[in-house]
Structure formats: C-alpha cells, structure tokens
Amino acid sequence: MNEIKHIFFDLDHTLWDFEKNAALAFEKIFEELDFEIDSQEFITTYNPINVAYWKLYERNEIDQESLRVNRLKDAFEAIDYPISLEQINTISNLFIAYLTTNNHLIDGTIETLEYLKDNYKLHIITNGFSFVQEVKLQKSNLDKYFITITNSELAGHKKPHENIFQYALSLANASKNQSIMIGDSIEADVLGAINFGMKAVYFNPANEHVSHEEIIQIQKLTQLKNIL
Questions:
Q1: Is the pTM of this model over 0.70?
Q2: Which pLDDT tens digit goes with each residue over 215-228?
Q3: Which domains does the chain have, with CATH numbers?
Q4: How far is CA 4 from CA 91, 95, 164, 218, in A?
C-alpha cells in the first residue's frame, strides 16, 4: 500500500447512506399520495429488488427507463399493493426529487475522509445517474473532499467494465499501481478494479461471505485507517 496516492470511492452504499435516505423519501411520498404503506417495510422489500435491477443495468441487460420503472413495479407487486403505471411514474419522479432532500452518510464517512484527505488524492467512481449523484455530493458536503468525479454516463461504460476505471484514472492523472478502489459491490467495485489491475478494498458492513478470500475487507469505513 506504500505506493498508493489515489483513492477511488464508490458513492451509494459506501459513503452515502442510500437505504436510510431512500426510506425517508418513500415515507414522504406515501404520506403525500395518501398510500397506506409502512415505508420501512416497503424499503426492506425494495432494497434487494433495486440491487438486482442495478446489477442488470451494470451488465447492460436493461436500460435506465426499465431500471427506473420495474424496480418499483416489482416492489409493489411483492407487497401485494395494486398500483397503476401512471402512479409508478409519479412515484419514480418524486423519488428522484426527494431522495437528495435527506443526506445521511454511512457511519465514519467524514472521519475517514478527513483522515485520508491530507495524504491521498480522493476521487469518486459511480454508476449512479449523473444529475442525481452531483446533487448528493453537493448537498451532503462531500464534494469538497474529491478532486475528480467519474460517472458512468460521462465515461460511456459502467463498473465493472475496465473502460470506466481507465477513464477515471486518466481524469485523475493516476496510474494503476498508485490507485485503489473502495466500494460495497464485490462485482462492480472490487472485482471490476482488480480485473483492471488496481488494488481494491471491499466495504462489507454486513460481513457477507465472499468466496475470494484474498480480497481485503472492512466492515467499518474507519478501518481504512489501519490499511492506508
């Protein structure tokens, strides 16, 4: 790790607490639309469906519109709540609008970034929709920590494709051996970076089993202090 000069972070689920912020957004939406749905129960159903659709999106098996609509459609079907396509589109638009009105961060985010910022150049690589990710970074005051922001729309490729990592390194004027990727997705962030030739750290707060035993894992962001 002595060669590392550039640290690349994923955003959602790694620094920005998507689950908590999404639950608050849905709570506001259901109240506004007078839906008798428990937002916490809904988010518990929605989260794994959302993750599954994001994996399809990352593999270019679905487009952005399918992701936007079908993750909600499947979640409402799973809780057996009748809903029209028009209502799904309304909720989807409100969700994007309300998601960034709350900007809770993963525990240890600021402490960790403050520790790293003086000795490393920090960057973001995200597959999230660019206009939403920019607002998240600004409203959460995370943007001040990062020199470059790479999103999949600008790069033309999504993680785990090697081209997005190449784009990010070129933007940061960094080399592979000087760079490390930190993220919560074993496939998109960690294996994507490793297959490209970068080092990587798997942020695994749930301590899920990983078949790749050689991969460096952390359960808390502050554990990066022991690595970097």
A1: yes
A2: 999 999 999 999 99
A3: 6-16+105-226 (3.40.50.1000), 18-99 (1.10.150.240)
A4: 43, 38, 19, 18
